[in-house]
Amino acid sequence: MKETKKVYWKGLEQLRNDASFVKHAQNEFAPAPEEDPGHSRRDFLRMMGFGLSAAALAACEAPVRHAIPYVVKPEDVDPGIANYYASTYINGGDYCSIVVKTREGRPIKIEGNTFSGVTGGGTSAQVEASVLSLYDNARLRGPKKGSARITWEDLDREVIAKLREINASGGQIRIISHSVLSPSTRRVIEQFRAAYPTTQHVMYDQHSFYGMLKANEESIGAAIIPSYDFSKANVIVSIAADFLSTWLSPIEFSRQYARTRAVGEDKKTMSRHYQFESILSLTGANADYRTMIKPSQEGAVAIQLYNLIAAKAGQPTLPGGVDVPHLQKAADDLWAARGNALVVAGSNDKAIQVVVNGINSMLGSYGTTILTHLPVNYRQGDDVAMVKFIDELHSGRIAGVIFYNCNPVYDHPMGEQLQAGLKGVALSVSTSYKEDETATVTTYKAPDHHYLEAWNDAEPKRNHFSVGQPAITPIFRSRAAQESFLTWAGVESPDYFEYVKRNWREWFYKGQAGGFQAFWDKCVHDGVYELPVEPSTVTFSGDVAAAARSIGQNYTETPMELVIYENGTVGNGSQANNPLLQELPDPITKVVWDHYVTVSPKDANGLETPESKTIYASINANGKVVKLPVLVQPGQAPGTIGIPLGYGRTKAGKVADNRGVNVYPLLSLVNGSLSYNVVNVKLEFTNERYQLAQTQTHDTYMARKSVIREYTLETFSKDPQFVKTDFNPQISTWKSPTHKVKPGELSMWKGHEYRDHHWAMAIDLNTCIGCGACVVACNVENNISLVGREEVINRREMHWLRIDRYYSSDADVEDWRGLEDAAENPEVVFQPMLCQHCNNAPCETVCPVAATTHSSEGLNQMTYNRCIGTRYCANNCPYKVRRFNWFKYHDNRQFEDVNPAMNTMLGKMVLNPDVTVRSRGVMEKCTFCVQRIQLGKLEAKKERRRVKDGDIKTACQVACSTGAIVFGDINDPESQISKLLKIRPADPERPYRIDKIADNPRAYNVLEEIGVKPNIWYLTKIRNKDVSPA
Amino acid sequence: MTDQQSLPARTLPLILFFLVASFVSNGQEIPSEPAAISAGEALFNNNCRSCHRVHEKLIGPALAGVTERAPSVDWIISFVKNPPAVIASGDEYATALFDQYKPTMMTAFSTFSDEDILNILAYVQAEAAKGPATAEAPAEGQPVSSAGEGVPAAYLNLILIGMVIILVLLLIILVFLISAVKRFLDQKDLTPEQRELVHAPFTLGTILRSRGFIFIVVFVVAALGFKAVINGLYSVGIQQGYAPAQPIAFSHKIHAGQYQIDCNYCHTGVMTSKNANIPSANICMNCHNQIKQGTLTGEAEIAKIVKAYETNTPIEWVRVHNLPDLAYFNHAQHVNVGGIECQTCHGPIETMDVVRQHSLLTMGWCIDCHRQTELNTKGNAYYDRLVELHSKQSKSNMTVMDNGGLECSKCHY
Fold it and tell me: pTM for this structure?
């Protein structure tokens, strides 16, 4: 088989085999940084001796600790027992139905709400991380006027006086916000407008979908964004839409997408996914066929696809269009799968969206994969209205402006003009919960609650409603923005909770059994209230010819083009001050804490960036010049550079401030909406050097078949067992030269039993999309230290769970030319890597103090208080998943800025009280969330029953929106994991022995040949590609 | 809310019915079999005892003779289940009771079945029949002796005396032996040096100056010193016997000892949570609404609780039992699942006026117990398979250790 020669690599230096890479590849850590030579070992011993005696003396008196009970204990709060509240994550137009875990009244973890028909229990990295934003030290402590504190009463009096004055003189008032998902908030704003009739509400979005709204208005008669159902799509074509990471509703889409990607012996079909894009996006990385196009070609590719389909459908073709690889194949597949096909485009240009609508109409997607009867509210922003507002502001025609939880000075391309224009207005108010770039320049700061402190509701899509329930009393003197609006509209001491409740009574209560209170309680408990919607169809009536003309006029290819995109970590920058997101490696580039410009290997022109040591480039776009470090990115279209949004904050807080450059100002209007592509860009390399913090090659092992296994769907469906037996390492024994056994069958220890439970995990490489939500969930659940940029450069990141991103190509190992070409556009595999809890764990045998041992339930235990820090275990770990605490990351002012969760009084509220905060000098690693296992067992014991499958779920498993991670007890033949892996005991006489065999043909252990018997099985990656083009 | 407001209205006819019914017969019979009495005793101790005694008045009335006093057994049942409703119904007896004990109102025990209440009454009747002298016999849950299963002290003394006698005899034999050897050597032809050696004076000075003696002394002193240092180091952070003064002179001796209030009544988390919970002030006020005069301290200490409650200031108790942050301990696992008495770790808490740390609370102490304690698997389906597997392979009892009770991740994560 040709496939057996597949080569994987993690970074370009590995592919090129750079000397410096080879030198350091086998080291887990970078060469030690230069230490201060001022102190010798002798000094150290001297100080140590003194220190010891001082410590011994000091330790004689134990500190007095207090225990402070409630005065009146709330009935539903028991110290030591977690409470869960359903709520709703809203950040601009981003939505997720969530369940908040609180301990002693403090939210400490966010999980998905499985009752939701929209997000269905999934989360994203940003949702998981948002719990730390609640405890952001940069939050406003209370209302302010200018830079001085003010009471709410004074603020209200002054604001109302000014509003009345403006109203009396007929001055214009504007409320600026992102898309508003909450129907009650929309009503509040209406009420405000009724009190001040000159008020207009202008919505804008950082990641605008205005072009799509306009296109739908034109082609289906309604300015809406429909729901998409990827789960019904057998063929998906995406033209630069990153729908698994940042496009519209990624949590929802990745769930649907994963359903079409799961394969097994009983389901040998999967969707086929084509991606045409300029930068390597997360979605592109998951595609079966990926074609690189230049940003200016997006429209032409859409036209070409239209023409290919139109030829089959017997429709007239359009002028323009460009042929790119795989396009014909995509068209053939789409046509064959019509009714179950879907084409999406990421462009914000109305014309391109009209053409795409035309394609979808020909394919019969409306009513099957595109649901226009379920319009979504995530993006309602109006680019034109926003620009008009800024122009009006600039020309002095606006008297009062209220920024409702938005930050356009930072995240709108005309932020600078807006800031200048604000000087002339009589009244400017910001309700942002932080003193951000916009709030700084407004007169009044009327901070809203964080979403975890406030009641709210949301309507993410038609007839899907959601309740936002506070999980903590407001920490500071903030006030719900809705109450502020109502107060200013003249309502006496409004209560937004009662307001929402009243609205729900009016809208949804139809005399359901049990009375309104019971109905409301159920809504609050479930977090969602969903009503059926009658399916309806639409007819496409767009003018594709005009659209094609417009595309032809607006786009001409230029030598260098720029894509400005949202990445899956910091996103649009609204949560940039969250260190959990800053230290989450970008799924593709694996960069943390840094801002960069991605450049294709071809454009890099031989630029070598060993060990992420790179240079700055200056980029001239639209006459604006920015300077950023260069990151050479395989898979990026030549002649294209990419820059992520979300950096260059100046008033976000210590974490985000002055990190990178704000590239929002580089955006401009094209064809009536914001364009995230810039043509005619100049890229110049400078001599200035820069060290990027990149985790990509950390903890690397040369990837080979025993690490990643990948087959095509055709191979798998023909003979599933081939996938299982293709790579079958065996070991010779002493019996005879020909006698060979499986590596796992040889062991120094025979016959161990796990009588109670045998915990194991299965990770499906097909449904894992590499988003990183699990990494953040793991960080929050297990109090994992964040170490900051410098320490990541020293290879000292602490993540227990990392996602290895492998590039691969079909070229022969020896075929260097072929490999080099492949490096231009590689295939990508994501592999979550965490402690494998080996039954024959190599780390355990080398620990001199038995600090890492094996439990009777298959867990590899790490005992921090016993560890003396020899790091032998990390050295001996074949998977490189052990992490060493090089410093004391808690209560250490040096790490205060990057690790606030362990260094500020406010931040510490997020810590999980069931998990120890590790100190300097000890090893740590994934525990399989042992605190959750112990809790699940205890609950079962208290109820005098066995543990039920599903009682115990690890944090990463819960966070995963695609269900790629399954955890459970393989001693229980009825558990989900046993059934998925088709587990059977190696010795049927002794079913509880540690040796278990997984009969699922896709199941394999990483590094099986070394015989460590891991308790994690991976499911082989299956790509829906033709076996060979020939 | 609406539900509760309508309750009195609904219960009124019910009570009327009971009143009428009680003239006809006593509705339900109070059982007299021992099983019912012991079930009633357990229920009484866990639920009623904090306010009621059989023979004396506490926060609530003495219960002896309650069946004769109260209108009917059915009345008692409905009152126990929901006192506010019965009082609100305007029932004459209930109103009189309420007036007598105002403002305290009995807690509603809506979860009790009729049978539970009859069992309690059976226990009360049985106790009342026994008379006051025997009624206050100490309840179960006496301190568990922490002394090891060693040899009694009297025997120890005898053994010591025996050993001393043997040593003295050995000494005498040695002296005889030396003189015999000397006599034997004197009969030989010895050189003057040899003779001098045989007759060398056996003085204190020679002993003190001898190498062997100096070595032994130095060794013993060094060993003792070393042992003292090690002991000292091992005791760093151990607070056995720690009995700090508390902001309020609360006495467990009075509450848990004299009044036999169940531990669970105040330490509400002990069966469900990791923490046993130090009671919130509102729990204190359940009784101290009524009781303002303390046995030991008069009014001053109780006034502190009332003040804390009224001014909404939490009481800052000094924590007595401190485990390091790296150790995870869960009360529910031990008390609820393991069925361990509080006194096993906390010592004779019901005799302490000031709470004192009774146990070492070191890891060695935990591990010792996990090695020796048999797993409480009775009636717990969680353990069924484990017990079966264990009994197949081993004849000894299944201890906590056999179920992984010594593994690191049971307590450290």
Answer: 0.85
